[in-house]
Amino acid sequence: MAQFSIVYSSALFLLFLIYSPSAGFEWKVDNNTNYGHHEGIISLTKAMKEGQKIKLLCFVWMSCTKMDENYLKGFHEHILKCDDYYYFTDENAPSIEMPENINLIKVPVYETHNRSDRYWLYHKNMAGIVPAWTYLFDNQIAEKYDWIINVELDMVVLPDRVRENIVLYSHYGNVNADTPAMYMFGNAFLWNKKYAGMMAARWDEFKVPAKDPPEAAGCPEVFRGKNHWPMCPQDISFKYMAPMFDPKPVVLGNSGCGKPVDFLTEEDPETRSRRVLLRVLSCYEMSQNPFKNTEEGQQGVIRQLAIMRSLQEPAKAQDHYKEFHNGTIYPSWEIFFAGRQCPIVHHVKFESVHKLARQLLD
Fold this sequence. Notes:
The chain is built from eleven helices and 15 strands. By secondary structure, the chain is an alpha/beta fold. The strands form three sheets. It has a seven-stranded mixed β-sheet with strand order 6-5-4-7-10-9-11, sandwiched between helices. The chain has a five-stranded mixed β-sheet with strand order 1-2-12-13-3, covered by helices on one side. A hairpin with a 6-residue loop joins β12 and β13. α1 packs across α4, α2 runs parallel beside α11 and α8 packs parallel to α11.
């Protein structure tokens, strides 16, 4: 069932909906502006301009496997466009070619978890991310930035598009600098300075690791009894953390890539169905692409996202896909169109795809 919260404005409801393909939505096509004609829609130009003011910190937790070493070759150039960035790994990480700004941290896991195990910290990456946050707090780093984002090595990350999406989410969520907020761009999580400050004030509580059962070693004790326990994947854990604060932070977006958010809808007075005025995809999931998940297929996804950024209007997007490949990927037009400002692409396997994304989408 779609979940949503309602924000009132003078003219309409702003609905934050988890996208469901069977929800019966249809696009209202109007080519008078970039996104369709409506007084509540912020222009792409304004989003880009406002985004340039955001001071963004990016950080990455990595296990330093050979796979991580391969991913780094394509990934590293992305986060150079953050205002600052940090890599974190544990003190016992295997020797690989390390990036700059690598920080060795103590990961609280125990004898039952061998560092050489193939699935070390599988679905338990909070055991590494929590000490990374501890480093950022203890060294007064987090407080210097407007927003902080945690990303992964198998992602295309476009910091300028990240800033642009922050502006969109803040505009439609009525979030300002005094509002604690966390945004979910799929598997990439973002915190504003206000919420990060609230986390820092209680971090001595949140950073305490569980010591039992053995399977939970390293996971934060505060998550004991939650779903997925004794595991602690970050895409679940950060959602559990938010309601523990007072005041509760505003949480917008969807955990897990490939799920658009419908920010603006309106009711059709005749059919009573809701028309989508603005649908935003902030993390494209490569495993859902309509091409083969090969190097060429993943490059095809990047090209489609670039085409959508140039088209902007839903009608033009539909026309493009009716003709493209004789309509064989027509059902994908909505997801590509929703991703026309997409800042994150997940499960990227090839260095050439990262390079193409920087050329076409940055």
